[in-house]
């Protein structure tokens, strides 16, 4: 598991400790990068058990579920997903109103990896149980891409992932990507990486340009939609992204797309904080656009 040198630069870092003052907070000591070290990345999420002991406990949990649930009786081990194990619920006979997840601790001990373009890129660290549950839900479909929003950090205690080269993202928000609706421009694209944008793939989402590019991909269908719901641009032949210097804002990015008939359109995306947004809608391009 490796990442480019750029993704491992942590300037002006300061130490912060998340303390378990509430039941919903996950205790973790990290080094948080400065406030400009935002991450807006797109990839696939997978849990990884960093020790052999945890792997064996997971295998034992799968076996127990196979024996205790008629739904999985006789099922192959591979048919019992990690989501099934993490979310498996038990209700005691003498306490019918009490339900608990006996194998939730496996999700809590697991290292959560974000894979971008089939490369393990980040360790995702949730701070609340709500975020932890969102990670668990992400294991329902291993092929589904997710948007990860957060801040860059680095583990300071040991090697929790088995790979010290991967930076940590302190998770703020996790969002699934919905396939395009039938009849839309990308109606034939069931997954994000099949969108008809030549040469454009998800990136590590560190710089303003990278975050804007990822946002454009993940919200492509909404951005490229006219007031009547029809696509503004039928086919894209080229895409260009640059900082809008005229606005004196390095986090305001202009996206210019060229259609197959050589018409150009542009929109601007503001990536100043954790949640990017379209600052100006997609419209015919002019040099004064968004200025």
What does this structure look like?
There is one protein chain. The protein is an alpha+beta fold. The protein folds into 3 domains: 1-48 and 111-177; 51-109, no CATH class; 196-284, no CATH class. It is 18% helix and 29% strand. The protein has 6 helices and 11 strands. It has helices at residues 52-68, 82-86, 104-109, 129-137, 208-218, 220-223, and strands at 14-18, 28-32, 38-48, 111-116, 119-125, 146-155, 168-176, 236-243, 252-259, 264-270, 277-284. The strands form 2 sheets. A 5-stranded mixed barrel has the order 3-4-5-7-6. A 4-stranded antiparallel beta sheet has the order 8-9-10-11. Strand 10 and strand 11 (277-284) form a beta hairpin. The chain is elongated and about 70 Å long. The two termini are 42 Å apart.
Shape: elongated
- Major beta sheet, strand line-up: 3-4-5-7-6
How many angstroms separate the termini?
A: 42 Å
The helix count comes to: 6
Average pLDDT confidence is: 77
Q: Summarize the amount of helix as a percent range.
A: 10-25%
**Total tally of structural domains:** 3
Beta-strand residue fraction: 25-35%
Class derived from helix and strand content: alpha+beta
Low-confidence runs of at least 5 consecutive residues = 1-35, 156-161, 180-194
Order of helices and strands: EEEHHHEEHEEHHEEEE
Q: Give the number of DSSP strands.
A: 11
> What is Rg?
22 Å
């Amino acid at each position: 598991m490796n990442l480019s040198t750029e993704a491992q630069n942590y300037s002006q870092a300061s130490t912060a400790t998340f303390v378990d003052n509430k039941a919903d907070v996950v205790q973790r000591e990290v080094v948080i990068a400065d406030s400009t070290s935002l991450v807006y990345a797109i990839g696939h999420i997978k849990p990884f058990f960093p020790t052999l002991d945890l792997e064996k406990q997971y295998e034992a949990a799968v076996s127990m579920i196979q024996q205790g649930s008629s739904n999985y009786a006789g099922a192959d081990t591979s048919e019992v997903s990690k989501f099934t194990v993490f979310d498996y619920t038990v209700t005691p006979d003498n306490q019918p109103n009490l339900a608990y997840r006996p194998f939730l601790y496996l999700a809590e001990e697991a290292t959560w990896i974000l894979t971008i373009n089939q490369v393990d890129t980040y360790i995702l660290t949730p701070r609340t149980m709500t975020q932890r549950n969102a990670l668990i839900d992400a294991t329902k479909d291993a092929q589904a891409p997710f948007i990860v929003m957060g801040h860059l950090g680095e583990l300071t205690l040991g090697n929790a992932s088995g790979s010290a080269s991967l930076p940590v993202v302190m998770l703020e928000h996790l969002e699934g990507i919905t396939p395009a609706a039938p009849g839309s421009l990308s109606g034939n694209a069931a997954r994000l990486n099949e969108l008809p944008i030549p040469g454009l793939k998800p990136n590590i989402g560190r710089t303003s340009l990278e975050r804007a590019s990822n946002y454009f991909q993940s919200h492509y269908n909404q951005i490229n939609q006219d007031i009547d719901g029809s696509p503004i641009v039928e086919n894209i032949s080229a895409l260009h992204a640059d900082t809008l210097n005229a606005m004196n804002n390095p986090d305001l990015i202009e996206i210019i797309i060229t259609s197959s008939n050589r018409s150009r359109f542009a929109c601007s995306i503001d990536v100043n904080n954790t949640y990017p947004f379209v600052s100006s809608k997609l419209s015919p391009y002019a040099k004064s656009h968004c200025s």
